[in-house]
Write a structure and sequence with these properties.
Rossmann fold, 8-stranded parallel beta sheet, 14% strand, 19 helices, two-stranded antiparallel ribbon
């Protein structure tokens, strides 16, 4: 597997670039569902599940922000012209396969015997680890819809783990790209579509990403696809870079004075439950929230207040206090308001919108009893945050101790 080459999607699927382009049409009929105009203003966009051909010009589409969509008739005609083997139920396309969650989904799917294809953006250093694991890697980009149809040929299930990069406008991937992916999946007869969303997204229309997630959920539900929507609360992995590493390196840890509680979950557990959902029809056309065993505040996980080595989980396991810099949520909100004044800082303002969530006093958690019962999973198999961080610190402190010992041994022989 290590010797497999990264292939361009068209060559892997046997679809020429010209044919791939012909599979894409344009469309944009109005719908009663649209993204909240309070923050989008002139950037307000429609969210339609229809595949009707677009009647407007290219210039009008660009100015109106109408997304590109698959033309079902062209796809069906092209599919009829191409012969091939029947689609296997084990064939999966993972979008966003190099991300924190995506890579765990890929690894779990491969371990369970699925044939995994990964859609990744063209990059200077290819995703070698995905090929080494046994996955097929194809190049594609959600912001370039013409690259999507070829990657979907021969696929039974799409698992969408993708999200935009910090430097990109939020809507480029998380709205325009997702709409194009859903449209192409529908047009090409994908049997199941798994979409990862955010818990409580419908309660925060003022937060661009959460409003986009809410709208995409509805768009997918109205698309006619067989779908499963999985809402997530937070990744345990995110706490490593945010708190665990800075504390160990005696660097500043940034926190807020908010009391929001989040039920973090290990991405390996999310991947396990996701694959479990694929195997049962009980998850078809359903929405689930995946939450960890307990909801934690910032003060409980990373930085204790008042200062005490026992107040914070990360500090207690590291055996040292954190150098804390607390940023009042009010400052974040003020910064967001200022960045909204300038067009070139709109994207930064969109990401600062999470300051609204931090002051919401909403608990990002949900009961999991019914979810475990539906999926036939056991809560005992789910990692707690204490177990996750304990394992991390045990391993990292052992490595640091070994490195220190090797350093001393080297000094002795010099």
């Amino acid at each position: 597997m290590a010797g497999m080459m990264v292939a361009q999607a068209p060559s892997v699927q046997g679809v020429s670039p010209a044919l791939s382009s012909s599979l894409i049409g344009t469309g944009g009929s109005p719908s009663d569902l649209s993204l909240n105009s309070a923050f989008w203003g002139s950037r307000k966009i429609n969210c339609s599940s229809t595949l009707a051909p677009c009647k407007v010009s290219k210039a009008e589409r660009r100015s109106a922000g109408v997304s590109v969509r698959c033309d079902a008739s062209k796809v069906m005609a092209a599919s009829t012209a191409m012969s091939g083997t029947p689609v296997r139920s084990t064939s999966i396309l993972v979008v966003g396969a190099t991300g924190t969650l995506g890579r765990q989904v890929v690894r779990r799917a491969l371990d369970e015997g699925y044939d995994v294809r990964c859609l990744v953006r063209p990059r200077p250093s290819p995703a070698d680890f995905l090929r080494d694991w046994g996955a097929t890697v194809v190049n594609g980009d959600l912001s370039k819809p013409e690259s999507l149809p070829a990657a979907l040929v021969g696929i039974h299930t799409v698992i969408d783990c993708a999200t935009g990069r910090p430097e990109e406008p939020i809507r480029t991937v998380d709205w325009d790209g997702k709409v194009a992916l859903i449209q192409c999946a529908k047009a090409m007869g994908i049997q199941k579509f798994v979409f990862f969303s955010i818990h409580n997204c419908e309660k925060h229309p003022e937060v661009p990403l959460m409003e986009i997630k809410r709208c995409t959920e509805k768009y997918l539900a109205e698309s006619g696809l067989n779908y499963t929507i999985l809402r997530l609360c937070g990744f345990m992995q995110g706490l490593i870079g945010q708190y665990a590493v800075p504390i160990l390196e005696d660097k500043a840890v940034w926190g807020t004075d908010a009391s929001t509680r989040i039920a973090y979950m290990d991405t390996q557990d999310i991947a396990r439950l996701t694959l479990t959902a694929l195997r049962t029809q009980k998850a078809d056309h359903k929405l689930f929230t995946f939450a960890g065993p307990r909801a934690w505040t910032t003060q409980e996980t990373g930085v204790g207040q008042p200062r005490s080595i026992s107040d914070s989980l990360c500090e207690r396991l590291a055996g040292q206090d954190a150098k804390v810099t607390t940023v009042p949520v009010g400052i974040l909100k003020l910064t967001r308001a200022l960045t909204r004044l300038f067009q070139w800082t709109n994207d930064a303002a969109d990401r600062l919108a999470f300051s609204e969530v931090l002051t919401s006093d909403i608990v990002f958690s949900a009961p999991m009893v019914d979810t475990y019962a539906t999926l036939g999973a056991d809560v005992k198999d789910t990692t707690t945050l204490e177990q996750y961080l304990q394992e991390y610190y045990t391993n990292i402190l052992k490595k640091l101790k070994d490195l220190k010992a090797q350093s001393k041994q080297g000094d002795f022989y010099i």
